[in-house]
């Protein structure tokens, strides 16, 4: 059965098409859901095996990146989001989606707090970075065998948290992805992405959805053929598919499409 | 109850650090500390529980601290607070209300502002300068020393604004704008009949109509014939429709040259060239909002470039921001979905001494910072990659910066939009209407002076890219729900509805237009240039469906009237008719302007070489020249990766720090793509505008061919930014530039499909000096890339490969960058004799580019770079920097090293080829090739008989502090 991935689109979400392309290539069936439709019918999540909060400038980032979208995903949706995770289905928040998931408290989770502050450069930065997979807990990254190359495009991607949180993230194997070589924004511990205690929820600033075919790589004309970001989505989709087929599937799948 | 909270960033605060650096650059070294804070003003039931929730909402304790009330400061610290003028879009305030509503808090209105705490030994004059030149812009903001007190009307964002307007047909619409309206009664007529020419001119000035004397007489005669005076709405509508900005008077004018010959109107010359080429891929040229081509079956591409010069001069952020928003709407107005943006920016010298700044002009640094931020803000937020462009610096742009914004869109073939039909509804979608940008079209058609910033205040607006993104989302899903679409740009509803109703006519009630705030006069609603609005014609039975779609996306829709079929444009305010004008007179009644051109007589027979004492030092100076040096610090602020289609980027090479030529877009799952290239060289235009135009077309073509485009499938855009064409010599330059465009277009068989002219880019200083921009023609080439896996980048690839130059190099130096770094030689005769010649057209170039395309497809070329600004030496250095490889050059074209290295002869390319493939390449190109030398692993550029220079030295000259 094909994994249905619900991609949340709020006003100002703008990388939903990109992540839909990535999920399609990874074998999933992406379904973009407008936040207004989701608020009116939170049960559409019941029909999805994966939830994606895509990048962009939801609500213009007016009160801080992702904060208003986070309000919609928590107060607006009630407990639908936590139920989604509790039922064992994977969630990914990319860039603005990461900022929103942090703002909901789902990441890092367990009452810890983190934030994504303005880049050290003080500017929006668009450049390619290299990511190393660190976490064996995170279902998205634990099977990654090579580094991922993909772009960042953000002004507020500096991961920050207090010392205790950083230690806890490290101790709990929640540091999912780190920057290799250049740390583009001054993130603490070179952290590019973190997972929650379940390993189901991944938040990351870079855009693996923009490296799904080799010719997207800036060094393609120099012969580069590695570092696809697609692999991250393939692992997420594979996990969702196995959870879907498992007789111990923790949730009831209605089979209907969105 | 009212309250305010001041929000301060914790830890490293780069915004404040940037402001401090800018203050020092403004000549205020005594500023020792400058800290920026945000302020949120609130009104509502603000009990302690509520304020606690608001605090949690607004302040992330890891990133910020918050203070309720006015923060206490040391009396030594100067405090300045600013806030937007009432009516200027305050998106942050809207967000506060939205969030408060979601949290169930009773906040009824909100506004936002900024607080600056400034330390240092500064007098009143210093503070005044700091505020006016850096911290606030009087066009959109007010400011106060110490605490700013919001006025009631500052709280213009109220919770009722969050409600989406109810909609229906005109008869059953309950307007929620009732409390936003002004009682419109009585006499709105303006007396014109019987006025003398002088009295008409006085009226023209008083109302800022910017009409020509002949046009005023035609208007007068028309209404005398109708038998009544015009209304203010009619007069404003005529002024807008007939403005230079909207009607291109100069490009449509009858022009007589110095010999007495009458020329074909310029627009017709371009059109005729396009017709002559009869390109099989052409769908639509020079009609509607954008040019349209079809390079692949089932898919059309819409292309357009616009200028937003005057608004960017007075409010750089808002001007550039809405320039981007406007050109994106042009693409939406052709029912295409935008996929990418381009920008070409022209500024005064960044190091201009503050004392040399004309009165009333913002410093180029500030203009640049604002414009770049404005382009980045709109493109990044709306989610479109800003992929191609150029940044030019010249003192001619100090008072008249130029901002060219382009957009490309795609549509899959579907039913043609054949409306509006009589009976279709006039539907407005998107943002609300305010006094934004009133008379922008006429403002843009005038020269500027020291008072422009103040009087034109209302002509500038702040964009809201999120609303426009929602419009894109709606239009994407609205196939079949509308019969025609156009954007609200210059001239607002007047222009949009006026153009759509050109044949059928329309009857609209402007009182049904959703407003930002009350008390707009009917003409203000009709002419407002409020952003992010589109007009659709919609069959009455589809309005409800479209409305439902808009509601899901959170877009406001208003049904304001009907397309009638009687050829009359009737504008009402409720029952009161405020305009009734014949659509034919509006669009075709303007008398054709007659103009006189004095054609230039450029030197084409006496080339003049140059002398260079130290070629390596000159090469380094060229690499560091602001026009040539790395633009990475700007490019990286634009998201050029979104949509995942950018496969040849503006920055290329092993470290992604080399300059690209053309960029290529290809969807991840498509086999083909699009290449976009830009050609511009205003300095050549000073000496020979015709050759400059050809060179610009050639450069744009070259840029996309080396990236992988098929030169037989290319369309072109022209954008002219010129001085006042009523001066015969300025018009003469324009005539010659158009002629160069036409010749090159025909030679390359690349049709022009759309264009735009922005004339009157002049500035009158208080002492009466008039400055004009250099003749600036931007050519954008958009070409089909048949194989997206066979794109090329200019970075050197492999040591041992040969470097080959194609095209001929001669001593053509007029307008060159060499002259820019070492000064224009002073000769005995007149200026044009002393500078030599502008590069001549290379008539073999079209054939050459076709063959190079074949060679790329055959896999014979490993990298390719065009020789343009700075000549061969700069091109080689750029290839080496990008590839992190060196080169040994043992053969230069011709005998004169200076010409070989620095002349900017056009039609030339450097190709990297494997030694074993040279014979095949030569056979295919079938022309003389100069084998310059070869690629080396050693990171040195070594030029036989000239000198050696290491890659590190080249790179630091090129990149400087721009990394």
Broad structural category of chain A: alpha/beta
Which stretches of chain B of 5+ consecutive residues score pLDDT under 50? 162-185, 454-458
Number of helices of chain A: 7
Give the biggest sheet of chain A. Answer: 9 strands, mixed
Query: How would you classify the helix and strand content of chain B by structural class?
Result: alpha+beta
H-E string of chain A: EHEHEHHEHEEEEHEEEH
Q: Identify the most extensive interface between protein chains.
A: A-B, 60 and 64 residues
Going by CATH, the homologous superfamily of chain A would be Class I glutamine amidotransferase (GATase) domain
Name given to the CATH architecture of chain A: 3-Layer(aba) Sandwich
Radius of gyration of chain A, taken over Cα atoms and rounded to an integer in Å: 17 Å
- State Rg of chain B: 29 Å
Walk me through this protein's architecture.
The complex is a heterodimer of chains A (258) and B (963). Chain A is of the alpha/beta class. Chain A contains seven helices and eleven strands. Chain A has a single domain (4-245), classed as Class I glutamine amidotransferase (GATase) domain (Rossmann fold), CATH 3.40.50.880. Chain A has helices spanning 16-25, 35-40, 67-76, 80-86, 96-104, 163-171, 230-245; strands at residues 4-9, 29-34, 50-53, 91-94, 114-117, 125-133, 148-154, 158-161, 175-180, 191-195, 201-204. Chain A has a nine-stranded mixed β-sheet, with helices on both faces. In chain A, helix 3 crosses helix 5 (96-104). The longest helix of chain A is centred in the last third of the chain and has 16 residues, at 230-245. Chain B is an alpha+beta fold and 963 residues long. Among the domains of chain B are: 2-162, no CATH class; 290-594, PurM-like C-terminal domain (Phosphoribosyl-aminoimidazole Synthetase, Chain A, domain 2), CATH 3.90.650. In chain B, 33% of the residues lie in helices and 25% in strands. Chain B is built from 32 helices and 41 strands. The longest helix of chain B has 21 residues, at 728-748. Chain B is globular and about 80 Å long. Chain B starts with a strand and ends with a helix. The model of chain B is unreliable at 162-185 and 454-458 (pLDDT under 50). Classes of the chains: A alpha/beta (258), B alpha+beta (963). Chains A and B meet through helix 1, helix 3, strand 5 and strand 6 of A and helix 1, helix 3, helix 13, helix 16 and helix 19 of B.
